[in-house]
Design goal:
It is a single chain. With 431 residues, the chain is of the alpha/beta class. The protein is built from 15 helices and 17 strands. The strands form three sheets. An eight-stranded mixed β-sheet has the order 4-3-2-5-1-6-7-8, with helices on both faces. Strand 14, helix 12 and strand 15 form a beta-alpha-beta unit. Helix 7 runs parallel beside helix 8.
């Protein structure tokens, strides 16, 4: 392909990227590092400070909170996350704004020019997208870049960047086809984002020992939730909470009267500790304001009677079940669920079962989509009541619409694809 034949629009680029590599996921850093060097991305920092976030669950909320809090302190922040819900542009945000189409097009052109230099290098969709994002961020004059690992850590394309601070949020089984089922080994893969002598922030009290051991072997200072930093309820036990942590110089710091961000408090506390390790001086008023306004679509997102959550593994489903209100006395707690076929459906169903009275199963499109009928069989086997199997999330909503009463609540979950389909349309509400 020569330059004049390159795609012109973002839509055309995304279609082109899907054809570049024989498989969708191909973990490893050799190919993406070569192209990054050609682009000049590895010669100098992409921002004054870089934080990389790895983990099974909680990456997106930790990154979103860091982004919001740092910007509330006057920092110019760039963020890279995946996957997106409605628009590819969501993956790259600069100073709180989604990247414009033209910026992404320019970035993909730079990636393609570098990729096609002799010898030509094949890249996956995610690898090309990561390089485009890094180019966008590197040219944005940032105080802080926050980067979310796509899959794993050690061999993920984001890991070509050396983080000033690295975070591991949680460890649980997911992506078993690529990371296996050994929790200790999964921990090693996630901890691959740590760097010698640079802070490693651990955002869970139940991580396998392999995570901290990896940091210690690198002489990376370890900041663990429950030890170096923590959170607590206010003195009256009400929703406002307090954060206790350490500054970059090792001094203790506490911030109280923090609002519930509507996201896991463990992740909020982890985000604050990671920011402190970048050298940012956290100001109570700015931190409180950011947490009061942070938003992350698709995570415990309430739209009237509907709760939309992208949870797609048992760990995420268990957290979701704990947060859901008890089933209403005069109504039903529905679940509209659609999942991919490489996810642990039995584990997700088991985690949600006690909170759900009635189920609607939906089929997701594509090679990885799981048929609704298969989900229904698994739910029935666990004693659940399935009312309907629909060919799509949209069809599932249409089935539910005439059945709802004002006391009903509906959880839509199981996949980013399930939630994205519902966010793209009006959701029926019972009067």
């Amino acid at each position: 392909m020569n330059h004049t034949a390159m795609p012109k629009s973002l839509t055309e680029w995304l279609h082109h990227l899907e054809t570049l590599h024989p498989v969708g996921i191909d973990l490893g850093l050799e190919r993406v590092s070569h192209v990054a060097k050609r682009m000049g991305l590895l010669g100098s920092p992409i921002a004054k400070r870089v934080v990389i976030v790895a983990g099974t669950n909680g990456k997106g909320s930790t990154l979103a909170i860091m982004d919001a809090v740092a910007r509330a302190h006057g920092q110019r922040v760039g963020a890279y996350s995946s996957p997106h819900l409605l628009r590819y542009n969501e993956r790259v945000r600069i100073d709180g704004q989604e990247a414009e189409d033209q910026l992404l097009v320019d970035g993909f052109e730079r990636v393609e020019q570098a990729r096609l230099q002799a010898p030509e290098i094949s890249l996956t969709y995610f690898e090309a997208g990561t390089l485009c994002a890094l180019w966008c961020l590197a040219n944005a004059n940032l105080d802080l870049a926050v980067l979310e690992v796509g899959l794993g850590g050690r061999l993920d394309a984001v890991n070509i960047i050396d983080a000033d601070v690295a975070v591991v949020t949680t460890i649980a089984q997911d992506h078993a086809n690529f990371l296996g089922t050994d929790i200790s080994q999964i921990g090693l893969e996630k901890a691959g984002v740590f760097r010698p002598l640079r802070p490693a922030v651990l955002g869970s009290q139940s991580l396998p020992s392999s995570v901290a051991d990896t940091a210690i072997a690198l002489a990376a200072p370890v900041y663990r939730l429950g030890l170096a930093f923590s959170h607590s309820a206010d003195k009256e036990g009400r929703k406002p909470w307090c954060w206790h942590g350490l500054t970059a110089s090792g001094d203790t710091i506490s911030i109280d009267a923090l609002p519930d961000p509507g996201l896991p408090i463990d992740n909020a506390a982890t985000a604050l500790q990671a920011l402190a390790m970048t050298g940012l001086t956290l100001i109570p008023k700015a931190t409180q304001a950011a947490l009061a306004n942070v938003q992350l679509p698709g995570r415990m997102q309430w739209i009237g009677q509907w709760c939309l959550d992208v949870g797609h593994n048992p760990h995420a489903a268990a957290y979701l079940a704990d947060r859901l209100p008890a089933p209403p006395e005069d109504g039903r707690q529905w679940a509209l669920i659609g999942m991919l076929n490489d996810k642990d459906a039995d584990g997700v169903i088991a985690a949600l079962a006690l909170r759900i009275s009635d189920w609607v199963c939906v089929t997701l499109e594509g090679e990885r989509g799981r048929p609704a009928a298969e989900l229904a069989e698994r739910i029935t086997a666990q004693g659940g009541r399935v009312h309907h199997c629909a060919d799509s999330p949209e069809a599932g909503v249409d089935f539910l619409a005439p059945l709802l009463n004002a006391q009903d609540r509906i959880l839509a979950t199981g996949s980013f694809f399930t939630v994205a389909a519902l966010l793209a349309r009006p959701l029926p509400q019972a009067l």
